[in-house]
Specification:
With about 290 residues, the chain is α+β, with helices and mostly antiparallel strands. The protein is about 15% helix and about 35% strand. The strands form five sheets. Strands 2, 5, 6, 7, 10, 11 and 14 form a seven-stranded mixed β-sheet that branches. Strands 12-20-19-15-17-16 form a six-stranded mixed β-sheet. A three-stranded antiparallel β-sheet has the order 3-9-8, with no helix packed on it. The longest helix is centred in the N-terminal third of the chain and has 39 residues, at about 1-40. Mean pLDDT is about 75; it is low at about 1-5 and about 10-55.
């Protein structure tokens, strides 16, 4: 009986602690923004007047950054003090009106975000290790009456990536059939995929004339022959034994680095026997 009562008290205590923690988290979520708005001077109380309103030295801009890098969203305020020589208050919000920072303090629970305030006029928002989901419109606000807002549009671009095709870089095909080489790539903006056939010497280049191909371009220390059209799938119709070799797909979208993959094509064909032509003399010897 005592053990049952002790267990009940433990469950009750645990429930109370969980409820208290949840309540504190809810209060924090509700009251922190309210307190900031009260400090910001936009709660509907006494109107604030300014002899000279602060003005933005920077205008609305577009900022483009590569995923994984750091983004700096500029916000420079001219005359960063009010008429009574008190510093203005600056808040950064995102496109969902979530308060990110207040003055030098980060409000949102994201260690990647903070304010660069090296100089009195600068209130730049820094986002480290940018993710594609960070893309959007950010607003820098100053507590004038009415509030002055300045927006920055953040665009995040993503370098090309190649997905695993499950072939292990090897494709076997019968002579006379159709070969399909696949190179799936993602990125923002969408990457362009170009195909090349790698050839090491003049002999291989002569043989490649019996397979689909176009002009030859110089790449690395060997030669490569441009194959087909740009796209994720390279189709070679009516494969011949001369189509075997190493093919390479290159994905590029203007965001470094570009990525490439090699695929070795092996062509299976029936044996062919050829005999050298020899002259046999029919002259009779006496």
């Amino acid at each position: 009986m005592q053990m049952m009562m002790a267990g009940a008290r433990t469950r009750t205590t645990t429930t109370m602690m969980t409820t208290t923690t949840t309540t504190m988290m809810m209060l924090r979520r509700v009251w922190i923004p309210v307190l900031i708005l009260m400090m910001f001077g936009i709660t509907g109380g006494e109107e604030r007047t300014w002899n000279t309103e602060p003005a933005y030295e920077t205008q609305g801009v577009n900022v483009t950054v590569i995923e994984g890098k750091s983004a700096i969203l500029p916000c420079s305020v001219h005359d960063p003090t009010s008429a009574d020589n008190k510093p203005v208050k600056v808040v950064w919000t995102d496109q969902w009106s979530t308060i990110l920072t207040f003055q030098d303090n980060t409000i949102i629970d994201d260690e990647r975000i903070h304010v660069d305030h090296a100089f009195a006029r600068e209130w730049n928002l820094r986002i480290n290790r940018v993710k594609y989901g960070d893309q959007g419109i950010y607003t820098c606000q100053v507590n004038t009456e009415p509030v002055i807002s300045y927006t920055v549009h953040l665009t995040v671009v993503v370098a090309p990536r190649l997905s695993n095709d499950g072939t292990g870089g090897m494709l076997e095909v019968m002579e006379g059939s159709k070969a399909e080489l696949v190179c799936n790539a993602t990125g923002i903006p969408a990457p362009t995929i170009t195909w090349f056939r790698k050839t090491a010497d003049m002999g291989e280049r002569r043989e490649s004339e019996f397979c689909t191909g176009t002009s030859i371009v110089r790449r690395y220390s060997s030669f490569s022959q441009r194959i087909g059209e740009a796209g994720q799938v390279l189709v070679i119709h009516n494969v011949t034994r001369f189509c075997g070799g190493i093919y390479e797909c290159v994905a590029e979208n203007g965001v470094p680095p570009s990525v490439r993959r090699e695929i070795q094509v092996k062509v299976k064909f029936m044996p062919k026997i050829s005999l050298p032509s020899k002259r046999i003399s029919t002259q009779k010897f006496y």
